[in-house]
Amino acid sequence: MSQPNTRKQSQRVSARERIQEAQRLEQLAAGRRRRIVVGVSIVAVLALAGGTALAISAAGGDDKSSAGSSAAAEPTALVVPANASGPDGTLVVYGKADAAHTLQVFEDFRCPVCKNFEATNGESVRKLAEDGTVKVEYHLAAFLDKNLGGRGSRTALAAVGAALNEGVDKFKQYHDVLYANQPDEREDDFGDVNHLLELADKVPGLKSDAFVKAVTERTYAPWAAKVADAFNDSGVTGTPTVKLDGKPITLFSGNRAVTPEQFTSQVKQAAGL
Fold this sequence. Notes:
alpha+beta; 2 domains; 5-stranded mixed β-sheet; globular
């Protein structure tokens, strides 16, 4: 008489175990889903927070050649563009040389958050430079080529060298055009010199014979590598980063870029104005 009860108890235990196992598997699956969501959220926040786009180390460990690796046909002789500034000509300075304060801007031409910064506050940077509040030091990087593959960052940087050789104003205009026409960072359109030459049409008077020759032959590729190495040595770990006389400027609040008014206010406050 005990066998039916035992069989029923066994069936109940088996059913309970199946339910518990199903619950355990669902909890594991839910945990995996949460981790995926959290991981995506962290990437999104890092890509927009505090001027550390993509949270990628610019230096890339000890690899200082990531920005300078080039095809065998590229020139090896270092040619520094006219109008370059700083140690070994690795900086570009825009604005009045005697400005009392220096705004350091660290960027990579493939960085999408740099594009966001330029779209929101690039005009503020220009106004601050042109009214003499600051002079702007551009520290240009090419580390996204290593992290994303391709050669768009360093090819664009070499083309910018050709623009700088034509004049600082031409550099600034071409710089702005590249950010306004930046491809998705997963695409390597800036690795095509013909595309870079097409974009140069948007800067009146830029496409001199010398400019076209320098871009086509990648004359300033060795200089671009040197500029990118200087960025890697700067201690800055992400782009965009902006500093006023060495003091960091907040570029994002939550997941939004600070407004032009907020950006300008920060710069002037840091400058004691």
